[in-house]
Amino acid sequence: MIETFARTLPSGITLSCRATGTPGRPLMVFLHGFPEAAFIWDELLEHFCQPEHGGYRCLAPNLRGFEKSSSPQEVSAYKAHLMVQDVAELAASEVEGGRIEALVAHDWGGAFGWGYANQHAARLGKLVIINSPHPGTFTRELLNNPAQQAASAYMNFLAKPGAEALLAADDYRRMWPFFTLMKAGPDGFGWLTEEVKDQYREVWNAGLTGACNLYRVTPMKPAAPGQPQPEIPQLPIERFAVAAPTLVLWALDDAALLPGLLDGLEDYVPRLKITKVPSATHWIVHEQPQFVAAEIEAFLKSPG
Questions:
Q1: Residue pLDDT, tens place only, 203-243
Q2: Predicted pLDDT at 236
Q3: Cβ neighbours of residue 105 under 8 Å, at least 6 residues apart?
Q4: How far are the Cα atoms of 48, 96, 98, 103, 230 from residue 108, in angstroms, in the given order?
Q5: Burial profile 82-110: b = 16 or more Cβ within 10 angstroms, e = fewer
Q6: In which order are the strands placed within the sheet that holds 100-106?
Q7: Are 272 and 129 in contact (CB under 8 A)?
């Protein structure tokens, strides 16, 4: 049984959350991406709270800017360190010391998962990243790989003024292709049913400005047509290093995030396991939730 609640953090941000399991049990946190929401994790929340699968307290927040969570209008409110702060404060509200035993993150959630693992290393057990580029390899590919530059070009559209209104028009006509162009429809994996569409409509009806602000605030975008490459800060490796044992689960048919993003990842994440999944796309959590759960469970049970 999934419980839903709103949790107000010391910063004043309120996150709407979905959770399973007994409070006080080892904490497992799930972070979603764009254009998704916490509900994508429901099957995994119900799986990992069961005693035979770890008996975790499972918690999936809607990130700030999504669903019923706080959605500040200022673009600066979506800087990465503030999103990571939300995760840390949420964990501290659940368990003394704020330790997350397992952090599972996808897409934008993965960006903040990488950040949490770097900034709060002492409060993390294991990290699981699903199709979310590490900032070190993403920067390299955006600067040097024309194929990744082209694959990431959509980021500039989402960052434009008024993008949220365009996305919402005509029953979200421009949103559904994010899914259907990667086999979500009945002629592909078939997970984008009318019931699931209604779940997305409910999330998007709450507003899309916060989600678009993630794209506006980040310098990690390819050059827009006719424009110079945005200046991406070149930071020392210590700002990107992750000490926690890390599983990267990578669907190889992701049209937006190419496999080259995995090259050299071990330079930043020495305790690394990469599992490449053929014939799966960016939406692998929707496509193969049981497979994803099994891979995560095997990793969590493996020696550190």
A1: 999 999 999 999 999 999 998 888 887 788 877 888 899 99
A2: 83
A3: 30, 31, 112, 113, 114, 127, 128, 129, 130, 132
A4: 22, 27, 22, 14, 19
A5: bbbbbbbbbbbebbeebbbbbbbbbbbbb
A6: 3-8, 14-20, 57-61, 27-31, 100-106, 124-130, 246-251, 272-277
A7: no
Containing 8, the helix (H) or strand (E) segment is strand 3-8
CA angle 154, 162, 225 (to 5 degrees): 40
Phi and psi of 130, rounded to 5°?
-120, 110
Give whole-number Cα distances, 87 to 8, 182, 300, in Å: 12, 29, 20
Q: What is the mean pLDDT of residues 265-287?
A: 98
Q: Phi/psi of residue 164, each to 5°?
A: -65, -35
Helices vs. strands in the chain: H and E counts, helices first: 12, 8
**Residue 235, pLDDT score:** 78
pLDDT at 11 over 80: yes
Residue type, 153: A
Label residues 18-42 b or e (16+ Cβ within 10 Å = b): bbbbeeebbbbbbbbbbbbbbbbbb
Each domain of the chain, given as residue ranges in start order, spans 3-301
pLDDT digits (tens, 9 = 90+) for 167-209: 999 999 999 999 999 999 999 999 999 999 999 999 999 999 9
Question: Which alpha helices (H) appear in 49-162, and where do they start and end?
Answer: 80-94, 108-119, 135-144, 146-151, 154-159
Q: How far is CA 124 from CA 99, 104, 116, 211, in A?
A: 6, 11, 8, 26
Residue 50 clears pLDDT 90, i.e. is over it:
yes
Is 1.10.3720.10 the CATH number for 3-301?
no
Q: How confident is the model at residue 28, as a pLDDT?
A: 98
